[in-house]
What we know:
- By secondary structure, the chain is an all-alpha fold.
- Helices cover about 70% and strands about 0% of the residues.
- The longest helix is centred in the last third of the chain and has 27 residues, at about 155-180.
- It starts with a helix and ends with a helix.
Amino acid sequence: MEPDYWKVIEHMDSNSFRELMLTYGQDVWNFAFFLTKSHELADDISQDVFFQAYQKIGSFRGESSIRTWLFTIARNISVNHRRSAFIRKVILVAGVTRKGTHPSAETEMMNQTLSDDLWRVVMCLSVKFREILVLNIKYEMSQKEIADLLGLSEGTVKSRLSRARQKFSEAWKEEIEYERA
């Protein structure tokens, strides 16, 4: 659907809802996973996001993209889950995998190992740094879009992004040194 369509829709019909979920469902789930480190919570949050979007599509003002609006809902729901007592326990992450074509089994294994190692380091960062990196790198959002989504100034986003990259680099170096030892 055209991006402008979402700016004028007041009530969502089943076809529009299906299109919204097909277009943005995986991105919303991935973002929820990056925030929570839990497949189950990402499932629940994604479901809640689309339920709220269905109910509140009339409140979408079109000041941001529909994806940014959905990410804002996902972030708010994730924050509420993190604040709950049951989420304060330690959650282990098996790793994040990507789909794609692979030229050979050896190349596939090497790429997967590197990807798992990189994501493991990203997932060890604090939420505020992990969130900024994921939005910038994975979802290719601009600093302005991130600022709007997180309710921060662009300067704060720029600063956090710089610190997140620095913390990632330090953690990556430690990972490499640990593997060599």
